[in-house]
Amino acid sequence: MKFETKAxxxxxxxxxxxxxxxxxxxxxxxxxxxxxxxxxxxxxxxTGNPTRTALEECLASLEEGKYGLxxxxxxxxxxxxxxxxxxxxxxxxxDDLYGGTYRIFEKVYRDYGxxxxxxxxxxxxxxxxxxxxxxxxxxxxxxxxPLLKIVDLKAVAKIARxxxxxSVMDNTFATPYFQKPLTMGIDIVVHSTTKFLGxxxxxxxxxxVTSNKKYYERMKFCQNAVGGVPGPMDCFLVLxxxxxxxxxxxxxxxxxxxxxxxxxxxxxxxKVLYPGLKNxxxxxxxxxxxxxxxxxxxxxxxxxxAGAKRFLSKLKLFALAESLGGVxxxxxxxxxxxxxxxxxxxxDSLGISDSFVRISVGIxxxxxxxxxxxxxxxxx
Length: 380
Ligand code: P1T
Prior knowledge:
With 380 residues, this protein is an alpha/beta fold. The chain is 38% helix and 15% strand.
């Protein structure tokens, strides 16, 4: 079955009792048992819920994995992956990450005796160099948030395998429509389903997909033990989003390509970061390992903080808001908003300056979006 068909059908057979074409929202906390221990596969909704099962099966199939787990947020999914580790273990991570991922590493799990080191991820050799006896996991994002660096997934997965490390890849930006990390040798994929998978900025959710039974069973155990599960209504919303993922991603990308080219030519813009641009340093690698370049663009204004604030406040269609991946376009200031939890010296060393802006290109008419950006740039 092809991607578009799987998104609409896997895990979503018509409901047997009534024929309802959509998976019902099983709004229930518990399930009646015939006699103690005799039930229909569901005991309690922290452990399992049929609406969640449908979502988990569909997500697993889209990522070409065997097992899916859905969570109440991307961060709950990330936290559960980290539950595979024990005190003393080390994670080698790419240096550019969602600010909340950096925060959970440094401000939560470091206190439990995990160690995190960060490497410049565009050269796979940097990961190998950082590996020590304590290293257990490699953590990746590609394209990274917010610098849109591209990591060679096959090369890093191979290094991880050679050193018997668990490789984890946050596929939120690309989505499985454009990139399938498990097919390139990655062990575990995580998602913030809040973004493109949900697609309508109306739900917070997360997911894990893997084909490794041992990791799956441990993470499923931790999911139930810790309890960061999504409610059935949220599962329904993500499932509904998945049905149109392929259609939306095509439109997102078409608009993003045009906007990246527009920004690149604009005199008030110093630099545009978008893997779909030919002058992106890893454009060729992106073209090789992705089926499309996504819809997140970062750029640096020829200005200062005041200019960036004027730009962001002037926009009308691009809403000034954290998050990304919805049908509506968003714009944000990573240094003050999504990546404020990175210390200033880390932000500076990465190049997330006060004039650095990130946009999530929606599926509105691209001419309207360009007019909006023009009016914002006019006041920079
Ligand atoms: O917000 P939540 O669903 O918990 O997902 C966290 C998360 C995980 N991974 C990546 C790559 C992310 O971008 C995020 C959330 N990011 C934003 C809110 C943002 O604006 O970048």
